[in-house]
Design a protein that fits this description.
The chain is an alpha/beta fold and about 170 residues long. About 30% of the residues lie in helices and about 35% in strands. It is globular and about 45 Å long. The protein starts with a helix and ends with a strand. The model has no long low-confidence stretch (mean pLDDT about 90).
């Protein structure tokens, strides 16, 4: 899978809702990342914790741009990126179709979106949102409809971790 990720996560990309930048060292490790934008809405995570992570893991700082802002309005040119990475982020979007449209706008043709860490919903009785955490839970059919509405083809993956199923998606822009 490492080789496959290396092909999918190469070139210029963005880590949306990057948090404390925990994924950045992994994205640079053995992958062909030329430049990575790290977008986060928390100044504490982006400006205080993130740089400590980058320094600790010796991430090449000239290849990383920290961006404070919203993932609904990426301040990038059209078709500027080869890939978009989202970990534990998509289910926090209040307006998922708007987020996907913005991702589609900045992604090059044949670009890739990796969405990891989405909740696996197993029952019909699960509520659509968690009022405490702000999570939005979708059934696979709902993900499919959202991705296809924007024009993405997708692959669905499930991974079990600590007796919980998490789903991930690999989206491709046609």
């Amino acid at each position: 899978i490492q080789q496959r990720l290396g092909r999918l996560l190469s070139g210029r990309g963005i880590d949306l809702a990057a948090g404390n930048l925990w994924a950045v060292p992994y994205l640079f490790q053995e992958l062909l990342v030329e430049h990575l934008y790290c977008l986060e809405y928390s100044l504490h995570r982006l400006g205080r914790l993130g740089p400590l992570v980058l320094e600790h893991y010796e991430v090449p700082l000239d290849q990383v741009t920290l961006v404070y802002g919203s993932f609904y309005n990426l301040n990038l040119e059209d078709e500027a990126l080869d890939f978009v990475f989202m970990s534990q982020a998509f289910h926090h979007a209040e307006r998922p179709l708007e987020l996907l449209a913005e991702v589609n706008r900045v992604l090059k043709r044949n670009g890739t979106v990796i969405i990891i860490g989405e909740h696996q919903i197993l029952t019909e009785n699960t509520p659509p949102t968690d009022p405490v955490l702000g999570d939005h839970w979708y059934k696979l059919q709902q993900y499919k409809e959202m991705f296809e509405a924007i024009g993405f083809s997708f692959e669905h993956l499930i991974r079990q971790q600590q007796h919980l199923d998490y789903q991930s998606f690999i989206l491709t822009k046609s």
